């Protein structure tokens, strides 16, 4: 017994040691990589395969960027006066902006006439939108001017690099000596003119980072001069850094390889021995942790990865080396424990059976099977099949009466069934007011009553369907308008991005695409939240809420938006605390939607009144503000989804805020109403008082 216990304890100690080695190696791999980037500043591994500095990424990037900048200057931008004259703006760009404005003209302008031809409407558009078209052209010019000035600033930052570029008329240089022989005297240079095209050292021509030829093909050989040279000080400093970085990466890769080998061996060992007391033990031993369902286990593993990623993303990357071990060790240990538990279930052949999903579906299947097997109709059928022959046998002396009673009962049930069948057929053919008359308490009578109840609600369903179809049509129209605007911009700038070679302009296009994509995301998120709220599928956790504190604290958190909107909030409430029975998160979400609506549409510099009254059984919250837009729509229309107070739809809202707020209040057993008096917008919320 003592020998067995000693062997078992030794097995546990060995597993613990190997477990710690696994975590150590895993953490070591991550830490070495982070140290390489954050401490040594080496952000790429390709340097290992670079034979020398001139074939490397850094040299190629520097030379290519400088070539791109100078090429853009002499080929496209020329000078500031050239840009301001509008010579850099192509007809294609102008037409694209005009097309975007024409979409707006079709949607918003009263001058658009659908009965006229496209050409006639376009002529009207050019007259009505002449100022906007001119403004769009000026904006394109300003974009080019900003790009031109940005390139000049970047060229000023190239220390240790000499350059000269000219198209015969315009000239850009940081050297007083503009001769070819001067640039040829440097240890590394590039020459391009009508008589020569040369890069030195020539081995750079074989580099995969050499993109110069494609840009040179865009230039005019007859008039263009493009000279670039790198000084000795610049090259010696960069070559020294390149050699140092390469050594750092190689050393780190050796260390990472060692850790990876240790991680692989240790992990394989744990997979082999986990769940067994020894290598000879064929049984899998599960512990308390292994009772955790495997699908939940997988979710926890995903949660560990997500938690680690969130921690890493929240820390400045270049100071991450200080925190990587405290972050990785506990999360990695928990993740490895969960993974080893899954390995045990794989060995035990219970990976799928020991999941919450399997358990739930299995119990539901058994329950449905039991219901099916023990239903009342089935019980009656079994009684008839088994009981009737027994009755006939016991009453053989009155066999004719028994048969007659059975036939009468059967005919009665058949008549009831035929009445139901005929009634269903008539209802199906459109007689929705028809009533099926089947008396009694049997199942057929209950079925007839249920069908009659269905016909009673059919008229209401038809009316609701008509209204629903109208709302769907309006919803589709509004959604299409709100989504098409950013989507059109995304498509336009993606098309531009495909053709754009200027990195600075490409970054501007990407920023615009990102803004429009965020706009689309906001619209879809709001639509999803509105659908979820209106469906009532949100859990409600009732609690005792101090509504005054909830509003005052919330306004404090939104203080920046309050100051930005220039609104003055006036809160009127009794001195005693007022408590409501509600879900704090859902109630604040509804109030936050109303405040967001106020920030968007309230008249700047006006007052917002928030009145709280305790009426005993319920608490009334009233919010009033002056609208910046003319409220020429009814309260019913304003509550419909994707409807806004500004009919021009120029604001950034989705039109779902009020609908979401109403649904959130109603699922908490409250009421939500709107009143409009001229430009005064009033929301009245009634919530049950907490007893």
DSSP summary, beta strand count: 12
Helix content: 55-70%
Beta-strand share of residues: 5-15%
**Overall average residue pLDDT:** 77
Unreliable stretches (pLDDT < 50, length at least 5) are 371-375, 641-654
Shape: extended
Helix-strand makeup class: alpha+beta
Strand arrangement, major sheet: 2-1-5-3-4
- Radius of gyration (CA) equals 39 Å
* Count of distinct structural domains: 4
Number of alpha- plus pi-helical segments = 21
Largest β sheet strand count, sense and barrel closure: 5 strands, antiparallel
Q: Span from first to last CA?
A: 66 Å
Please provide a written account of the structure:
The protein is of the alpha+beta class and 691 residues long. The chain has 4 domains: 2-39 and 239-347; 53-230, no CATH class; 375-523, no CATH class; 536-688, Heat Shock Protein 90. It has helices at 2-38, 57-77, 80-84, 91-108, 118-128, 130-156, 180-184, 212-216, 232-273, 294-314, 324-347, 356-373, 376-394, 399-428, 443-499, 503-535, 547-557, 559-565, 584-601, 635-639, 657-666, and strands spanning 161-166, 171-173, 188-192, 197-200, 225-230, 543-546, 568-572, 579-582, 607-614, 618-626, 671-677, 680-688. Strands 2-1-5-3-4 form a 5-stranded antiparallel beta sheet. Strands 7-9-10-12-11 form a 5-stranded mixed beta sheet. The chain has a two-stranded antiparallel sheet with strand order 6-8. The longest helix has 57 residues, at 443-499. The protein is extended, with a radius of gyration of 39 Å.
């Amino acid at each position: 017994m003592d020998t067995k216990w000693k062997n078992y304890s030794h097995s546990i100690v060995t597993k613990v040691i190997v477990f710690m080695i696994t975590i150590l190696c895993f953490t070591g791999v991550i830490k070495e990589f982070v140290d390489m980037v954050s401490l040594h500043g080496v952000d790429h591994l390709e340097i290992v395969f670079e034979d020398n500095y001139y074939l490397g990424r850094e040299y190629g990037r520097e030379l290519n960027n400088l070539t791109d900048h100078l090429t853009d200057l002499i080929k496209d931008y020329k000078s500031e006066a050239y840009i301001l004259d509008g010579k850099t703006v192509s007809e294609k760009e102008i037409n694209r902006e005009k097309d975007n404005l024409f979409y707006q003209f079709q949607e918003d302008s009263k001058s658009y006439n659908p009965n006229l031809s496209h050409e006639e409407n376009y002529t009207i558009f050019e007259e009505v939108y002449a100022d906007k078209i001119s403004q769009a052209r000026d904006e394109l010019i300003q974009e080019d001017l900003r790009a031109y000035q940005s390139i000049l600033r970047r060229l000023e930052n190239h220390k240790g690099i000499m350059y000269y570029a000219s198209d015969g008329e315009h000239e850009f240089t940081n050297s007083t000596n503009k001769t070819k022989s001067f640039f040829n005297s440097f240890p590394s240079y590039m020459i391009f003119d009508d008589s020569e095209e040369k890069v030195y050292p020539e081995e750079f021509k074989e580099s995969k980072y050499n993109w110069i030829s494609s840009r040179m093909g865009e230039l005019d050989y007859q008039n263009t001069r493009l000279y670039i040279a790198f000084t000795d000080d610049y090259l010696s400093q960069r070559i020294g850094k390149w050699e140092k970085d390469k050594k750092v990466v190689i050393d780190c890769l050796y260390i990472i390889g060692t850790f990876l080998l240790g991680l692989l061996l240790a992990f394989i060992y744990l997979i082999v021995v986990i769940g067994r007391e020894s290598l000879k033990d064929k049984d899998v031993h599960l512990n308390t942790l292994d009772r955790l369902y495997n699908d939940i286990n997988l979710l926890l593993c995903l949660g560990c990865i997500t938690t680690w990623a969130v921690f890493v993303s929240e820390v400045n990357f270049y100071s991450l080396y200080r925190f990587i071990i405290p972050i990785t060790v506990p999360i990695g240990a928990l993740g490895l424990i969960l993974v080893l538990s899954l390995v045990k279930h794989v060995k035990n052949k219970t990976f799928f059976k020991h999941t919450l999903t399997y358990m739930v579906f299995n119990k539901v299947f058994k329950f449905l099977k039991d219901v099916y097997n023990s239903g009342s109709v089935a019980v009656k059928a079994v009684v008839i099949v088994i009981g009737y022959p027994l009755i006939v046998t016991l009453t053989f002396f009155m066999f004719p009466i028994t048969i007659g009673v059975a036939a009468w009962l059967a005919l009665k049930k058949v008549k009831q069934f035929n009445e139901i069948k005929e009634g269903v057929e008539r209802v199906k053919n459109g007689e929705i007011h028809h009533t099926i008359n089947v008396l009694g308490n049997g199942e057929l009578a209950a079925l007839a009553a249920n069908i009659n109840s269905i016909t009673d609600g059919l008229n209401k369903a038809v009316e609701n369907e008509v209204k629903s179809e109208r709302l769907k049509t309006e919803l589709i129209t509004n959604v299409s308008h709100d989504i098409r605007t950013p989507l059109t911009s995304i498509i336009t700038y993606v098309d531009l991005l495909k053709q754009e070679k200027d990195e600075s302009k490409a970054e501007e296009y990407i920023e615009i695409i990102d803004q429009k994509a965020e706009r689309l995301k906001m619209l879809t998120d709001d639509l999803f939240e509105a659908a979820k709220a209106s469906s009532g599928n949100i859990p409600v956790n009732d609690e005792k809420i101090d509504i005054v504190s909830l509003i005052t604290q919330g306004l404090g958190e939104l203080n920046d938006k309050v100051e930005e909107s220039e609104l003055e909030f006036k809160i009127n409430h009794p001195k005693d605390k007022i408590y409501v029975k509600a879900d704090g998160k859902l109630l604040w979400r509804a109030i936050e939607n109303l405040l967001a609506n106020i920030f968007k549409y309230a008249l700047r510099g006006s007052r917002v009144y928030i009145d709280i009254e305790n009426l005993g059984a319920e608490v009334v919250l009233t919010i009033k503000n002056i609208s910046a837009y003319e409220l020429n729509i009814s309260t019913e229309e304003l509550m419909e989804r994707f409807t806004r107070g500004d009919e021009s739809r120029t604001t950034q809202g989705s039109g779902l805020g009020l609908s979401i707020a109403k649904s959130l209040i109603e699922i908490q057993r409250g009421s939500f109403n709107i009143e409009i008096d001229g430009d005064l917008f009033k929301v009245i919320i009634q919530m049950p008082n907490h007893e």
